[in-house]
Amino acid sequence: MSLEVLAPKRVEMLLEELELGLPQLGYPEVEPIILDEVHITLGAGPDGYKAQFKDVNAKGVSALRVTGLRARLSDDEVQLQLILSIPRIRAAAKYRSSGTLILVQASGAGDYWGEYEGVKAKVFIRAKPFSYQDRRYLRLQQLKMDFSVKDINMGVENVHDGNTILQAALNLFINSNSQELLKEMKPDLRRKLVQVMSSFVEKLFAQVPYDAWITE
């Protein structure tokens, strides 16, 4: 038996359905993607800057497209590597921070917003086929991902107590160091995204039979 390719048209069809939601998988609306909490730490010691972003609400993910797809298949394992492109993601969250930032005491709270353009993601999936009621399905074994962002524009507003000096200082620092801040956020953000993606892929594999993905 020769296992050839993951059906790319099936992937594209599912991505188009994302924009309408997938109620059969428990996703009546795919967007927004919500992450409960993300952290960032800059510097060490008692004056190090720490920020917590809660209820991160992201939109734009449903516009993703598969720009690269590689598959390594055998009778007992499927490995997939997908390259994804997302034109723009818009995010909003509540933030709380403490510590010192650019010589300014930056303890406070308020609203965070961000626009991330040119998002590229690489996703690795390892799964095993299994049989259920005379049909074959895939069971997720491992999912890893990494991502990059070409352009970032973000800031804070409605800072607690109306501290305009703090708000201006934070926004200046954030936009002058956006890629460095993303690098610091990445481990926590990536871990949260892997959790969300793994849950989605598990449900997808449980609903879509193996032969809908693979051409034999």
UniProtKB/TrEMBL annotation:
Keywords recorded for this protein, A-Z: Biological rhythms, Signal
Alphabetical list of SMART domains matching this protein: JHBP
Name the record gives this protein: Protein takeout
GO cellular component, one term: extracellular space
Upper classification of the organism: Eukaryota, Metazoa, Ecdysozoa, Arthropoda, Hexapoda
Protein's GO biological process: circadian rhythm
Family: Belongs to the TO family.
Organism (species): Odynerus spinipes
